[in-house]
Amino acid sequence: MITGCLSLVFCVSCAVISFTSGVFLEPDQNVSVPIGWIHIGRVSASDQILLTFALKQQNTDKLKEHLEQVSNPHSPQYGKYLTLDQLSRLIRPSEETLKTVWTWLRNLGVQNCSTVQTLDFLKCFMSASTAEKLLSGSKFNRYTNGHQTLIRSPVKYEIPEEVAEHVDFVGGVHRFPLQKTVISKAWKSNRYKEAGFHLGVTPAVVRKRYNLTARDVGSHENNSQAVAQFLEQYFHQMDLTEFMLLFGSSFVHHTKVGKVIGSQGGIKAGLEASLDVEYIMSTGANITTWVFSNTGRHKSQEPFLEWMILLTNMSSIPWVHSISYGDDEDSLSVAYLERINIELMKAGVRGLTILFASGDDGAGCREVRRGVNTFRPSFPASSPYVTTVGGTSFKNPFQVTSEVTDYISGGGFSNVFKMPDYQAAAVKSYLKRMKSLPPATYYNASGRAYPDVAALSDNYWIVANLIPIPWISGTSASTPVFGGILALINDHRFQKGLPALGFINPLLYNLQKNGTSAAFFDVTIGCHLGCLDEKTEGQGFCASQSWDPVTGWGTPNYPELLKALLVGKVDDP
């Protein structure tokens, strides 16, 4: 990482400049303190704050155009991905942006900064008093959730007008990390008590359902896959060894994670981390696996943003990424959402496949005002530039049968991002053919719809802290399973000299444009949760033939999906 000496390039001869009055950079950011976090006092003036400045990039329109070309199987540019160097030359901030921001920082003595190869992020350490001068109006305080302490400002911040046109947002000021818990339905609800009698999903069950044989394992040396963990979620190597000993005897597999990026510690293994690692490595078996461990240990760090910065600064990186993380779309500023979208586009033009869990709250629910509700989409699940994975359950809980909707499976429509062209026909067809839909005021029918695909998300076995644990559920399970399947398909593509799948959505929707192909098991039964009110009576959207906003196109039939995706450029008929 390039250090703060970069400032000398632009500012060694800069005079101190007086900037004019400030403007709010993220005026719509929710600055309320989430439930579960308790205020414990103001920081001292000398306490160190880590702020991340997202600098305006150039040529974002060209970036979007290039992503569309390299992801479109009908384009002559399909699969012709950019290197990190090429991407840097395309989108790095202008000289004016770099000079303006560095001058602003130097005016207040901020010099302990680092940047990335693309130069579009600056991470700077400074005292709390300096941070509050830099970000006018901010007041940094400490908060705790019982096991973690954060520094955040509950007040919106301003920056000088001359600087605001060069910065998208400042990280480490407002956003609290989502406290996600792994679900065990057997213990959670009497309404679905039958889940407790499920014999359990294991790697053998996953592989049998999706038609993977013992021969379906990776072998190409260039292949790789990854999961990302946040907020002190750790896996233990001994748990993975024990898991494979119990459940991996029928196929060749790795017994160790290939590489860990970040801090990996902690006495207890987390259920989330164990689930992600064990199922991407047993589905995408024998493929080198990385774990990105974004602990958020510095009290002003935003772990998800830290992961995105890591991706943008690594020249060699895994091809498939599975992330079981999400936040309420309405809790984030539009500036933040739009910039994260650009970061996801940057990953796509480099040939990375990024999968996000659709969430475990069905359609979600938010009270707009007393007695008036609306569904609550999740982000990054609602981003047009990721592949979002929903969840299913077995129709017969005692057998490997066809699948039905998992009632917790997240899905719906973005309130921020418009529906991308690649999915417009499929989504409009669903809205047209469904006789019973939720009230129109509950969702944005013209927004990006999700999920795109699904996999089993109900009643998994894992090993954590050397203890086999049953009945773990959620799209945190379905996402690494689907990620492992795509990594296996990449393996076959590499063996044939084809590029990585990259951003796969245009290809998936193109594959299905003439109806549901044999590449997916179509899930047509069941609905997910909505608002518990008189208008929806707890029901969100329902599954149907072809695409739906609960299970997407359905779950993978591996041999047919492999056959369909083992293609280079597709010529138009």
Features:
globular; 573 residues; eight-stranded mixed beta sheet; single chain; alpha+beta; four-stranded antiparallel beta sheet; 30 strands; disordered N terminus
Notes on the structure:
By secondary structure, this protein is an alpha+beta fold. It is built from 16 helices and 30 strands. The strands form 10 sheets. Strands 11, 12, 13, 14, 16, 20, 21 and 24 form an 8-stranded mixed sheet that branches. Strands 4-5-3-9 form a 4-stranded antiparallel sheet. Strand 6 and strand 7 form a beta hairpin. Helix 2 (60-71) packs across helix 12, helix 9 crosses helix 10 (271-283) and helix 11 (303-312) packs parallel to helix 12 (334-349). The longest helix has 21 residues, at 475-495. The chain is globular, with a radius of gyration of 23 Å. The N and C termini lie far apart (48 Å). The relative contact order is 0.14. The model is unreliable at 1-15 and 186-198 (pLDDT under 50).
